[in-house]
Design goal:
- There is one protein chain.
- Helices cover about 45% and strands about 20% of the residues.
- It is of the alpha/beta class.
Length: about 325
């Protein structure tokens, strides 16, 4: 099972990180111009929300401007490819989530693999997914959702794209509960939530931060979060592990990667600046308030997490019969 380190490990990681010396980094010639940060999803999604909270402090620590470029399409594949085509000099980075592992686990003809062409830089944050329903959908809690799945009655569950991390998380949850929903694909969490709010869908799976305001204001019912522990941002929402699926856990993560072959000094500078941004109390407060847990893990741990996630997603794809054309 994939386990992402908790806050206790974060403290040790940040304390062990090298101090940021902007002048020393610039003396080595990096960065010599603004850095392009590709987010392979449309604006307003979970990765974009993280990037816009993180990047100002990251740029300040790096001593150079950082420009966010949203390149959505094909479940992040278009943006991933843009980074693979970029010069491996540290001036282009990818800010993405575990959908990178999802598309790697279920490649489509002519696309990928992506992971071998990317160098992990930093694991930034992790968060739970949440399953939400309309208050009048007849799904008041996790037990009702589990019973509906096991009854084999159709359950329409929206996901922000087939073959995405959200889709795989929903498939894993269905396995744990003993049933499988009928997935409906959307181009992002925003349109999905519109249809859940309107009662068109029975339920939806999104990253917790995307639905928090709707849950807090009573417009959506949170059936459960997919982490093994409740989120500090929404402690009233139970986990599926504590209600209907003991030991179940799947959490989304967001991190930074660069094209493979990027020089080690540039990778070190990017990592140090990223850790510096994650030390900023204002950034931490903002991310925590959005349902993210700050992780701050380096390239070795992040690379291992990427590989483990690919393996877990590939296993569920085989178990439920997902095919590349389903992505």
């Amino acid at each position: 099972m994939i386990r992402i380190p908790r806050r206790a490990l974060l403290a040790a990681s940040l304390l062990a990180a090298p101090a940021i010396q902007t002048g020393a980094v610039q003396a080595q010639g990096f960065p010599s111009r603004p850095v392009r940060a590709v987010v392979p999803f449309p604006p307003a999604g979970g990765v974009d929300v993280f990037a816009r909270a993180f990047v100002p402090a990251f740029a300040a620590a790096l001593g150079q401007g950082v420009v966010i470029e949203n390149i959505g399409g094909a479940s992040s594949r278009v943006g991933n490819q843009a980074v693979l085509r970029a010069a491996a000099d540290g001036h282009t980075i990818l800010i993405t989530n575990d959908t990178l592992a999802a598309v790697e686990a279920l490649p489509i003809p002519g696309s990928g693999p992506f992971v071998p062409g990317l160098a992990p830089v930093l694991l930034g944050v992790a968060a739970s997914h949440v399953v939400v329903a309309h208050p009048r959908a007849g799904l008041p809690d996790a037990a009702a959702y589990a019973a509906r799945l096991r009854s084999r009655r159709p359950v329409n569950v929206g996901v922000p794209g087939l073959g995405t991390a959200h889709h795989f998380a929903s498939e894993l949850l269905g396995q744990a509960l003993g049933g499988r929903p009928e997935h409906v694909a959307y181009r992002g969490g925003g349109p999905l939530l519109v249809d859940v709010l309107g009662g068109t869908l029975d339920a939806g799976v999104v990253t917790l931060n995307a639905a928090l305001d709707h849950i807090r204001e009573g417009r959506l019912v949170a059936l459960g979060v997919t982490g093994k522990e409740r989120s500090p941002a929404a402690p009233g929402i139970p986990t599926f592990a504590e209600t209907v699926a003991p030991e179940f856990e799947i959490r989304t993560w967001i991190g930074l990667l660069a094209p493979a072959g990027t020089p080690a000094p540039a990778l070190a500078a990017l990592q140090a600046a990223g850790l510096g941004a994650l030390r900023d109390p204002r950034v931490v407060q903002r991310l925590n308030g959005q349902g993210f847990d700050v992780e701050g893990r380096g390239p070795e741990a992040f690379g291992a997490l990427v590989r483990d996630t690919v393996a877990r997603f590939a296993a569920v794809a085989g178990a439920v019969g997902l095919r590349p054309e389903d992505a």
